[in-house]
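Notes from hallway chat w/ T.B., transcribed later so I don't forget. T.B. wanted the structure written out for a chain they're using in a teaching module, and asked if we could keep both sequence and structure tokens in one place. Agreed to drop them here.
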Amino acid sequence: MSSPQHVLRAAVLASVAAMGGCVFGMEADLPEIELTQSGLRFPAAPPLVTAGEAMVSARFITRTGRFELPAGAKTQVKSSHATLSSLSTGADLGFIRSVRVTVKGLGTGAPAIEPAEIARYERIPGAPAVGPVLTASAGVTSTLFEHWKAPQLQFTIELAGTLPDREWLGDLSVGFSGTIHY
């Protein structure tokens, strides 16, 4: 199965090749790719927090692969969705009040800029039970492609709420799509 970076690279290269030799501008939509990290470990609430809100985070790193765009090409990459799924049977993620997912390029050539926020969730007070799957809003992030140019991406998932007193596991899936202008 192709990795997300290979699918994105192939889509960009195919779009650029289709534009070769053109004297007019073109725009091409890049196909959506989905990145899933399974088995993320979320720590228990800190021991001094017995009743009330706490915040924890989990991180993972993935390779991006390297590719270059022709001079003058402009891109817009956006996250289309972010889904957090509990791996515990029958679990309800209703204890989560907020989620923030960021991405930052790492390694040689990584940009010296703040991480890009790619998804956010804020639970509405009194909302019905969430269940085992929580979907966070996602959208255009102006610096996402700059981070993607780095050899590795570090994803950070920050959770706040009335968190469990024991470690738990979850999967994070993030969808990305984009456009190239040349």
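Follow-up for T.B.: The chain has a mean pLDDT of 81. Might be a good example for the class.
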